[in-house]
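Supplementary Text 2. Reproducibility record for the structural model of the 203-residue chain.

All settings were left at their defaults, and a single model was retained for analysis rather than an ensemble. We include the record here because the model underlies the residue-level annotations in Supplementary Table 4.
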Amino acid sequence: MKVVKPDEHGLREAATVIRTGGVVIYPTETVYGLGCEPSNADATRRVCEIKGRADNPLPIICADTETAERVVEFNAAARKLAEKFWPGPLTLVLPKKVDYPIWVNRGGKTLGVRVSGLETARRLAKLSGGVIVSTSANKTGKGPYDNAKDVIRHLGDEVNLVIDGGTTSGELPSTVLDLTGEELWILRSGPITGDQIVKTLKG
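Retained model, structure tokens:
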């Protein structure tokens, strides 16, 4: 396992690891995340094994909204929310346009996507082809972690590379909002509240 800084050199090195099938740990605007190329079956399976789970889908960070629109089918509500809260800690679950391995969407017809509020994560996604897996870097039932020291101690031996971005905000992982049905469903509470979502959609 190698540790790099969140500068351009370090991000390019991390992107090379991702593009060649490796798994990296990187900072987001909330907590540290586990990342890999979502189209790589071996890498996505490995992420699930590191977390110790195999039942939940893996969300994706996109470099920008335009990239997200190539991955999932946006509706009017998604566009409004993305305009308000992206880049930021809101994951939108929408109908998929891209078929990723079973480990990513568990065979379903939807994907969870967001554009991170941290430039480091967005740049890493861009250098890695536009999209990277983004699930919190922790074992299921443990963490998540807001600093590189802890995440290296707990998971460093199981990944190829860690981007040491110091301490993150330590906020809850992103809010996950399902926009695929007639009603909106918050699948995971996070920094963006239901009241904020409703207010934005009514505005």
